[in-house]
Write a structure and sequence with these properties.
The structure holds two protein chains of two kinds. Chain A is mostly helical. Chain A folds into two domains: 9-50; 69-270, MetI-like fold, CATH 1.10.3720.10. Helices cover 78% and strands 0% of the residues of chain A. Chain A has 13 helices and no strands. Chain A has helices at residues 2-6, 9-20, 26-46, 58-70, 79-110, 112-127, 134-141, 145-169, 173-181, 186-220, 229-238, 242-270, 276-281. In chain A, helix 4 (58-70) packs across helix 12 (242-270), helix 5 (79-110) packs across helix 11 and helix 8 runs antiparallel to helix 10 (186-220). Chain A is flat. In chain B, 47% of the residues are buried. The N and C termini of chain B lie far apart (36 Å). In chain B, helix 6 (196-202) crosses helix 7 (233-246). Chain B folds into two domains: 5-78 and 157-246, P-loop containing nucleotide triphosphate hydrolases (Rossmann fold); 89-153, no CATH class. Chain B has helices spanning 47-55, 94-104, 109-122, 138-150, 168-184, 196-202, 233-246; strands at residues 5-13, 22-31, 36-40, 62-67, 70-71, 79-82, 156-160, 188-192, 205-210, 215-221. The chains are: A mainly alpha, B alpha/beta. The A-B interface holds A 172, 174-175, 177-185, 188, 192-193, 196-197, 199, 271-275 and B 55, 57, 74-77, 79-81, 83, 86-92, 100-101, 104-105, 132-134, 148-149, 151-152, 158.
């Protein structure tokens, strides 16, 4: 009988335990794990189990971090310069890709004949690994900023374009039927039904594209520039500064994390109606 | 006020070569203004096809559908449609969903807001105006769907298994609600359902279709006064009659 067992001291104790558990947030466990691993790493280097030169310990990385902020690497090019350069390139390339891909994708997706006509081109362009275009892009545009931004935009463009096309085509017909029976015109249906119904999938594509932007940026910063986090890592490699490389990686992770969170926040603000379930399904 | 629907020798085939693609064959049916007619039958009997012909989503291969004496053209606001669950616009709140039709037909903001508020009260959703569909239960969502269809003040309400996805209790609650709403706003209702009980409980007349090809099998006038007792002798006798007609 549930009522009698519920009131037993043992059950009450378990209930209290369950209620008590959320007091420790989930991230604490993750943080503890990381701290333990960092401690082990430091300890292992101290006892010369692993090479401090190849695997600079956390204490060394902390000093490097400080040095990069103050003096920079190469000397004079401080971290904020690298940060700004990388962030700007990503924002430019990503924004250009988004601004062109979304309207075009919506248009193509809503025009079946056009969609059939351009599908082979899109499939091909999407399959071309963006970085394999690097030599060609350098030949066309030189090794300047334009090439870097172009390659980021290229990588993102096809992903967002495809997601926008699929999004429009995936809009449930019942929404369109409902809108028609409510007397909406074709234009009203496009703007007020197709567009909002497509947005969750377009956002999913934008998230994937952001990952692509990071893949491309690091590689394109490895040529022809000393500014940017990719350049920082590359320069560090030339001087066998594994510590600088690692700190550079951490910087990249910080930008990536921040941008991904910003995009997620934007999605929550713009699409408050999207359920968590749908987020998982996407 | 409702309008009469005349379905005259309507045949609908989806593919000219394939005999099985004959969804409806020579169906004739007259529905009076303000009448509540249910269409029942097994899957594939063409119930939904018939509804879509009236709605204007489909055109008959031969024969014609007349509404108030006029042939049906494309879908329009004179025929409100209530679908099975999941047809509300998830990006609009309850009241925005209800306002969708009037807004796109250019009804001024203040006027359409007042109408929508009235409909919210009619379907008893006061306090849920600003909720998104996902925040509403299945029954509440269908209340919004009915209000949305009524917002254009249509002559005809077309309902395609509107309560099919609801649990038993919510379903009977919604049936009662629909009758109340239908009393308040007289409309011609065409109601497609799988449930003989539901059809008998709601309608003035139950139309039975048989599958492959979809033909009109039987028509049963239900003259029992409302609210009906599902366990009454007459009710059960009619249930048996329709059941026999289907099988």
């Amino acid at each position: 009988m549930p009522s009698s067992s519920d009131s037993s001291p043992r059950r009450a104790w378990i209930r209290r335990l369950r209620r008590a558990r959320p007091a420790v947030p989930d991230w604490v466990y993750g943080l503890l794990t990381v701290l333990v691993l960092l401690g082990l790493w430091e300890y292992a280097v101290d006892h010369a189990w692993i090479n401090a030169y190849r695997f600079p310990p956390p204490s060394k990385l902390a000093r490097t971090f400080e040095a990069l902020l103050e003096r920079g690497f190469p000397r004079g090019v401080t971290t904020d310069v690298h940060f700004k350069a990388t962030l700007w390139r990503i924002l430019k390339g990503y924004t250009v890709a988004t601004v062109f891909a979304i309207p075009l994708g919506l248009f193509v997706g809503a025009t079946p004949l056009l969609e059939r006509a351009v599908t082979p081109i899109i499939t091909f362009a999407r399959s071309v690994a963006t970085l394999s275009l690097l030599p060609l892009a350098v030949a066309w545009f030189g090794v300047g900023e334009f090439t870097r931004v172009f390659l980021i935009a290229y990588g993102c463009f096809w992903i967002i374009l495809t997601s926008a096309i699929n999004a429009v085509q995936g809009v449930s017909k019942v929404y369109v039927f409902a809108a028609q029976s409510l007397g909406a015109s074709r234009r009203q249906i496009f703007v007020q039904v197709m567009l909002p119904a497509s947005l969750p999938r377009i956002f999913a594509g934008m998230r994937v594209a952001l990952g692509m932007a990071f893949l491309v940026i690091i590689a394109v910063e490895m040529i022809g520039t000393i500014e940017g986090l990719g350049a920082l890592i590359m320069e560090a490699r030339n001087f066998y500064r594994t510590d600088v490389t690692m700190v550079g990686m951490i910087f990249i992770a910080i930008i990536g994390f921040t941008l991904a969170k910003t995009l997620a926040w934007l999605e929550r603000v713009l699409l408050p109606w999207v359920t968590d379930l749908e987020e998982v399904q996407r | 006020m409702g309008k009469a629907i005349a379905i005259e020798h309507v045949t609908k085939r989806f593919n000219d070569e394939d005999e099985r693609a004959l969804a409806l064959e020579d169906v004739s049916l007259h529905i009076e203004a303000n009448e509540f007619v249910s269409i029942v039958g097994r899957s594939g009997c063409g119930k939904t096809t018939l509804l879509n012909l009236i709605a204007g989503f489909l055109q008959p291969s031969s024969g014609q559908v007349l509404i108030g004496g006029e042939p049906v053209g494309s879908p329009g606001p004179d025929r409100g449609m209530v679908f099975q669950q999941g047809a509300l616009f998830p990006w609009l709140t309850a009241i925005q969903n209800i306002e969708f039709g009037p807004r796109n037909r250019g009804v001024p903001r203040r006027q359409r807001r007042a109408q929508a508020q009235e409909l919210i009260e009619l379907v008893r959703l006061d306090g849920f105006e600003r909720k998104y569909p996902r925040e509403l239960s299945g029954g509440m969502q269908q209340r919004v769907a009915i209000a949305r269809a009524l917002a254009n003040d249509p002559d005809i309400l077309l309902m395609d298994e509107p309560f099919g996805a609801l649990d038993e209790l919510t379903r009977s609650e919604m049936q009662l609600e629909l009758l109340r709403i239908w009393e308040a706003r007289k409309k011609t209702v065409v109601f497609v359902t799988h449930s003989i009980m539901e059809a008998l409980y709601l309608s003035d007349r139950v139309v039975v279709l048989s599958p492959h090809p979809g033909r009109l099998r039987a028509e049963v006038a239900v003259t029992l006064p409302r609210p009906r007792q599902r366990s009454s002798q007459e009710f059960m006798a009619m249930y048996e009659e329709i059941h026999r007609a289907i099988f």
